């Protein structure tokens, strides 16, 4: 502790002093939300019906997640003791790091990827080892396999990945789990519904494979903060020991079954996004803007040196996008969430106006490359 006159300040652990900070650019998010990959419209009407029926007495009780976990596990084709509901996927990542990372241990991250993996790992005594993807942002399988050592205890794979939208094949995932039997290999399927391929059927059959899903994206429950972590029964026992017993709130637990039941709404929204994603990619091609193949509800777009000006010009017109230029390998890039077809049409129109305002021209990126 350090003395400051008569005031004593309490110092955190060294790992917390070193911890990577994350400041989400929230606040003043009025307008068309094409920045955080949420459902851009609304949740299922069935969820709203449940919310209206919740009485004040329900809020006086501690939440009980076990019955809803059984329903979610069944929805995923898993046994009840293979699934654990979490306060969003963020808590799942936090619990994994607290369970498996000790001094001298390593978490492998193919980068660029979701920021919270590194944030939560950096709060432990473990070390993050980044494995950078190439310019095409494809999964760096060979470099990742070469980076695995006996110290590797967690490998986090977002599939589809954010902010790139790239995917990892089942064969590649199996190659990783086989090379690192001592490590927990997390496959984060936050954007599963826009991709359609999963490794859920391998849970319990592959002893070191874990799966995460969120209900913040396609289901539109970002404000309720609920996700699920699934894995072999033996692993789940330790994760349940670490997690808070009441971290998933009563409102989320009450609404989740209704969201799962309303398959018609989910199918409609996902269909809208897939059609709008195709429209956006065509528009980006017409504008001569570089983007990368995406299997998620967003596209990563190369704006170049004027990325900040572009984002600001979009915001002035009431459309929010996410500047990802600080991510490894993403210099000059902006991520654009895909919503409904009508929203995407509006977003494309605004994009054309913003590009015109900042004076962006089709040859700008080529000239920047020549100057570099």
Structure write-up:
- The strands form four sheets. The chain has a seven-stranded mixed beta sheet with strand order 4-10-9-8-7-5-6, sandwiched between helices. It has a four-stranded antiparallel beta sheet with strand order 11-12-15-14, covered by helices on one side.
- A hairpin with a 6-residue loop joins strand 11 (290-291) and strand 12 (298-302).
- The longest helix is centred in the C-terminal third of the chain and has 24 residues, at 263-286.
- 38% of the residues lie in helices and 17% in strands.
- The N and C termini lie far apart (49 Å).
- Helix 3 (66-75) packs parallel to helix 9 (250-261) and helix 4 packs parallel to helix 5 (115-121).
- With 372 residues, the chain is of the alpha/beta class.
Number of strands: 15
The major beta sheet can be summarized as: 7 strands, mixed
Poorly predicted runs are none
Question: In the CATH scheme, what's the topology name of the largest domain?
Answer: Aspartate Aminotransferase, domain 2
Second CATH tier, the architecture of the largest domain: 3-Layer(aba) Sandwich
Q: Which range does the strand content fall in?
A: 15-25%
Question: What is the CA-atom radius of gyration, in angstroms?
Answer: 21 Å
Count up the domains.
Answer: 2
Distance between the termini: 49 Å
Structural class: alpha/beta
Mean pLDDT: 94
Question: Helices and strands, in N-to-C order?
Answer: EEHEHHEHEHEHEHEEEHHHEEHEEEHH
The strand order across the widest sheet is: 4-10-9-8-7-5-6
Q: Overall 3D geometry?
A: globular
Individual helix count: 13
CATH class of the largest domain: Alpha Beta
Estimated helix fraction:
25-40%
CATH H-level superfamily of the largest domain: Type I PLP-dependent aspartate aminotransferase-like (Major domain)
């Amino acid at each position: 502790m350090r003395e400051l006159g008569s005031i004593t300040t309490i110092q955190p652990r060294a790992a917390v002093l070193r911890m990577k900070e994350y400041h989400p650019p929230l606040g003043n998010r009025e307008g068309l939300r094409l920045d955080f990959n949420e459902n851009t419209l609304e949740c299922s009407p069935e969820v709203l019906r449940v919310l209206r029926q919740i009485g004040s007495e329900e809020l006086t009780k501690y939440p009980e997640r076990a019955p809803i976990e059984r329903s979610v596990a069944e929805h995923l084709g898993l046994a009840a003791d293979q699934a654990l509901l979490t306060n969003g996927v963020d808590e799942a990542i936090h619990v994994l790091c607290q369970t498996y990372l000790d001094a001298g241990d390593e978490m492998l991250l193919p980068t660029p990827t979701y920021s919270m993996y590194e944030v939560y790992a950096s709060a432990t005594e473990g070390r993050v080892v980044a494995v950078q993807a190439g310019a095409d942002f494809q999964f760096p399988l060979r470099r990742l396999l070469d980076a695995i050592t006996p110290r590797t205890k967690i490998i986090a794979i977002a599939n589809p990945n954010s902010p790139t939208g790239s995917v990892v094949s089942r064969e590649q995932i199996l190659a990783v789990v086989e090379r690192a039997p001592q490590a927990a290999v997390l496959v984060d399927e936050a954007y599963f519904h826009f991709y359609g391929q999963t490794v859920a059927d391998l849970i319990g059959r592959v002893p070191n494979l874990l799966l995460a899903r969120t209900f913040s994206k396609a289901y539109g429950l970002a404000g309720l903060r609920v996700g699920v972590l699934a894995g072999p029964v033996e692993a789940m026992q330790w994760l349940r020991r670490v997690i808070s017993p009441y971290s998933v709130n009563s409102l989320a637990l009450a609404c989740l079954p209704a969201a799962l039941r309303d398959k018609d709404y989910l199918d409609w929204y996902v269909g809208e996004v897939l059609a709008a994603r195709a429209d956006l990619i065509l528009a980006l091609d017409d504008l001569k803007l570089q983007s990368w193949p995406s299997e998620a509800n967003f596209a990563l777009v190369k704006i170049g040196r004027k990325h900040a000006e572009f984002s600001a010009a979009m915001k002035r017109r009431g459309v929010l996008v996410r500047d990802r230029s600080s991510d490894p390998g993403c210099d000059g890039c902006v991520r654009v969430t895909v919503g409904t077809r009508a929203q995407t049409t509006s977003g494309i129109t605004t994009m054309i106006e913003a590009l015109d305002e900042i004076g962006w021209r089709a040859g700008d990126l080529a000239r920047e490359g020549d100057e570099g």
